[in-house]
Amino acid sequence: MRIAGVIVEYNPFHNGHLYHLQKTKKQTEADLVIAVMSGNFLQRGEPALLSKWTRTRLALQAGADLVVELPYVYATQKADVFAWGAVSILDLLGTTDLCFGSENGSTTPFLRTLEVLEENRDFFNQQLKKRIASGISYPQALNLAFSDLHLTGDDFIDLSQPNNILGFHYVEAVVKRKSAIRVSTIKRQKAGYNQATISDAHIASATAIRRAIFSGEDFNHLQNLVPPYTYEALTQARQNRTLRRWDDFFPLLKYRILTTSADEIAEFYEAEEGLENRLKKHIRQAKNFSNWMERIKTKRYTWTRLQRLCTHILTGAKKAEMRPAAQFAPPTYIRLLGMNEYGQLHLNSIKKRLNVPIISKVGRNEEALMAIDLRAADCYRLIQPASDPSEFDCVPIRFDHASKTFVR
Amino acid sequence: MRIAGVIVEYNPFHNGHLYHLQKTKKQTEADLVIAVMSGNFLQRGEPALLSKWTRTRLALQAGADLVVELPYVYATQKADVFAWGAVSILDLLGTTDLCFGSENGSTTPFLRTLEVLEENRDFFNQQLKKRIASGISYPQALNLAFSDLHLTGDDFIDLSQPNNILGFHYVEAVVKRKSAIRVSTIKRQKAGYNQATISDAHIASATAIRRAIFSGEDFNHLQNLVPPYTYEALTQARQNRTLRRWDDFFPLLKYRILTTSADEIAEFYEAEEGLENRLKKHIRQAKNFSNWMERIKTKRYTWTRLQRLCTHILTGAKKAEMRPAAQFAPPTYIRLLGMNEYGQLHLNSIKKRLNVPIISKVGRNEEALMAIDLRAADCYRLIQPASDPSEFDCVPIRFDHASKTFVR
User: Is the pLDDT of residue A191 over 80?
Assistant: First the structure.
């Protein structure tokens, strides 16, 4: 039995994602597809446009058989930790094939790059340190340290491409776990990762779609870019005013920064090198989230890095809580978001040999285990409390594959 | 020269307050009236209906010559600490006469009650402890311990009346400071303190007025109960949606409780005896502020006590910060809110012999000194940022007594 795994955010689910999902199934000849998906806060330190429950529904409708949550401690991290958490969960769930999108459609350059990097790890780390000390941002330093290795040509990947970075760390995590997972890639169609404008009639990046949604452009146009169920979910969320972005959460962030001492802000994850003072200094004048980001950004800190810090302050994520994951600790639980009958069968078959609990329903015991995910869900829900039930009242979403309907 | 002092909240300023102010001036033959006023959060643990700056304008228009803020560390406390802070500030500012409203219009029973209480302090404290241990609320225990002294009749005051409690502690604070301030009382007109219904055509309690404002009753009716400048301020605030109550701040409170650990909540002032766990347990279900209060109140904790705790959580007021004031430390600064030309003259004349700074404008130096007042102002302003400038941009309000106009 072949079980394919995909690592996703679906913010929102679009035609490119559908292509990836269908192609994955076909290419790997999978009997089952497991999606491990970020929760309400995403890798780039942003709230998701639609809640994790809505996005789970979309994933199931699109053909995923099992949807589990990538816990907050991995989901809101740099690519290496994000990849480590996601691959680990897929591995625990018995995934045989991991399939991700890349520019050229082959895994060989990823493996080759990893190999050479491992051989030159000391030199690479030395260069990285030197570059960071020069005052540039971490991603820039990474790029330069990588280019110091002079790995060019088709044998290697270009690690300055964001999507390559994620893929690279997926491969790295598989190797690091000594996992039997077979990695393959799917050549991306048309839209580049993060590409901001809608370049093709049917495929556009999630970034471009989000931009179109908030720019007040003609909403109907989105019908060409997303499957009908996504279009319906977006339309409904727009009607209910539950399409979320950072600006919705900014008053809460501002409140916390205003009423928390610099010393206490320094306890939040990623508040390093006196950033807490910088935040305190600028918060009173900030008018909205992007105005705020403009005020605090520097050459050293990327927008994404600062967005992540803001997410951690918002959710109250402390250094001590995040440290184990940041140091590549394996997951301690798997949060089940949704499944169809095949997903359910698979879960039943592996449950007994799993050494971490699968959480379907949050009770007293789970409260401590996934405290930070619950806080993140509480924050997310606080903006429009009516839109989602509390995490304690949510049960995994069940989708009937045969009839293509949700089971109540 | 006689200088009268009044201790006020003006939430909002009404005809009863005007009577008190005018009568105070006349009865004490004062050349000047100083009002020490709670800031944006009040003694009963509530946000003020109108900001402290708007209320300062009303006080000046009504005839106060100098308006200073009662710092948060005193203003949001039990009657004894509130009174201590207010009397201390009036004393520092050279007040010769303190005048407060009472039911019978004489200070003798206040002094007599204090005397007997002092003589029996040990017995009283013993009884108080015993009563508290029985599980009733602090005010109830205070009442019963007091009744154990068997002080009845016209010689004594009834300490079960909220207004008598404040008056009693004013007198106590004057005695404790060995101050030369002469205390007198003014017999209250018509409306009792906290009386909830509007009983008279021209005098009503602030509580009744606030209730009328939020009940959606005919707003015009208020014209009979408040001076025209208050009516105008209320009308304008209603138009601008800046009439504030706890419900406006509840999302922030909910956010903080949801995303702060019980251990950290326990650091906030008045979070005693495991209250932090009670708060954490009930917050997720709370729909609005009064629904929240209904969920957390017990026989032991009064609504006011819990409201104060909520205020401290909202503003991030820690035990360590509040302790000095709670233990009757004297004020370390005086925050100037407004004055007319007489108030200014008086300030000039006493400035040199004052041993605490008078703060007109908040700068770097003042930031640490009055950190908690700044946080309270930031919280208050967060709800409708447009309504007030930040505390750093506010200067005392100047009113010209001769022309009855504000000076820009």
Answer: no
> Which DSSP state fits B225?
T
Residue with tokens 């330190």: A45
CA distance B255 to A48: 18
What CA–CA distance (Å, rounded) separates B376 from B311? 9
- A251–B382 C-beta distance less than 8 A: yes
Q: Is some CB atom of chain B closer than 8 A to the CB atom of A254?
A: yes
Q: Is the dihedral angle over the CA atoms B124, B128, B134, B136 positive or is it negative? A: positive
Round to the nearest angstrom and report the end-to-end CA distance of chain A: 29
Kindly indicate whether the domain formed by B3-103+184-243+330-407 is annotated with CATH number 3.40.50.720. no
Yes or no, beta carbons of A316 and B260 under 8 Å apart:
yes
Least confident of A33-37, A93-97, B221-225: B221-225
Taking residue B150's Cβ as centre, other Cβ atoms within 10 Å add up to: 9
Rounded to the nearest angstrom, the minimum Cα separation between B124 and chain A is 39
Average pLDDT, chain A: 91
Q: Rounded mean pLDDT of chain B? A: 91
* Nearest CB partner across the interface for B316, out of A251, A259, A379: A259
A392 contact residues in B (CB cutoff 8 A) = 284
Asked whether the beta carbons of A93 and A177 are under 8 A apart, the reply is: no
Domain boundaries, chain B: 3-103+184-243+330-407, 246-325
Mutation test of the interface with chain A: which of B259, B315, B392, choosing the one with the most A Cβ atoms within 10 A?
Answer: B259
DSSP assignments along B345-395, one per residue? HHHHHHGGG-SS-EESS--HHHHHHTHHHHHHHHHHHHHSTTTS--GGG--
How far apart, in whole angstroms, are the C-alpha atoms of residue A55 and residue A49? Answer: 9
Judge whether A228 and A61 are in contact, CB under 8 Å. no
Neighbours of B318 (CB within 10 A): 17
- Closest approach of chain B CAs to the CA of A315, in angstroms? 6
Q: Are B377 and A261 in contact (CB under 8 A)?
A: no
pLDDT, tens digit, for every residue of A36-71? Answer: 999 999 999 999 999 999 999 999 999 999 999 999
Pairing of strands B397-400, B334-340: parallel
What is the pLDDT, as a whole number, of residue B140?
83
pLDDT tens profile B190-226: 655 555 555 556 888 888 899 888 887 778 889 999 9
One-letter amino acid for residue B291 of the chain: N
- Chain A residues near residue B252 by CB distance under 8 angstroms: 251-252, 255
Q: How does DSSP classify residue B177?
A: T
Rounded-to-integer distance, Cα A100 and Cα B320, Å: 53
Q: Are B339 and B60 in contact (CB under 8 A)?
A: yes
Looking at beta carbons, which residues of chain B come within 8 Å of A259?
A: 256, 314-316, 375, 378-379
Tokens of A376: 């993140």
Report the range of poorest mean pLDDT among A225-229, A264-268, A300-304, B176-180.
Answer: A300-304
